[in-house]
Design brief:
Elements (H helix, E strand, L loop, with lengths): L1 H46 L12 E3 L5 E3 L3 E5 L4 E7 L3 H6 L1 E3 L10 E6 L17 E6 L2 E14 L12 E9 L10 E8 L1
Parallel strand pairs: 4-5, 6-9
Antiparallel strand pairs: 1-2, 3-4, 3-7, 5-6, 7-8, 8-10, 9-10
Length: 197
């Protein structure tokens, strides 16, 4: 009888004890240790990813702390939605915090092929769904302006764009997460804007 009563006390006191211990550790500095461990894991994940190959004067330099400094390669402009965004080469988180990024492996705007440019829907591409067919999009890069005319827009599955079948013409595709303006990080759709020179 006594051991049965003792087991009931343990089942009640054990969760309470763990809760008190967690609260004490949280407020006495263990929180800082957990944050440091998470920062170390994030740094490991970021530094173990492949580095982009920057081309034709696209700078990729590190400061004294090992942080990568990336210079813009141009500007992305669409007057119809008052968009004027710095344009970078690459699509890392760091770049997309600074502006729009040219997807590595796609053509540069002054080359033959399709140029893919992405940006966050909550910042630089917040009004991307307001672009209409016939609107003009300009890229200022290397002392020249390249102008495209929007042919269509659509929302589609994130995997619907087959990069291996991109046309060998001078086209532009802008893309961002869809639906626009949401903070849900697991959105499986993208909003695409297609334009031709």
């Amino acid at each position: 009888m006594r051991s049965k009563h003792r087991k009931k006390k343990i089942y009640i006191l054990l969760p309470i004890g763990y809760s008190v211990l967690f609260v004490l550790l949280y407020f006495t500095g263990m929180n800082g240790l957990v944050k440091k461990q998470l920062a170390d894991v994030k740094k490991l994940l970021i530094t173990s990813t492949p580095q982009y190959q920057y081309m034709r004067g696209m700078e990729n330099t590190e400061d004294e702390h090992g942080q990568v400094s990336v210079e813009p390669v141009g500007e992305l402009i669409c007057d119809s939605i008052s968009m004027d965004v710095p344009l970078y080469y690459g699509d890392t988180d760091q770049i997309l915090e600074l502006g729009a990024g040219i997807y590595p492996g796609s053509a540069l705007p002054d080359e033959t092929g399709t140029t893919l440019i992405g940006a966050h829907d909550t910042t630089f591409f917040a009004d991307l769904d307001q672009i209409k067919a016939g609107d003009k999009i300009s890229i200022q890069m290397n002392d020249r302006t390249i102008t495209y005319t929007v042919t269509k827009t659509k929302a589609a599955d994130a995997n619907s764009l087959d990069l291996s079948t991109l046309r060998e013409d001078n086209s532009l595709i802008l893309y961002t997460c869809y639906p626009l303006g949401q903070t849900n990080t697991k959105r499986m759709e993208r909003y695409f804007v297609y334009a031709e020179k």
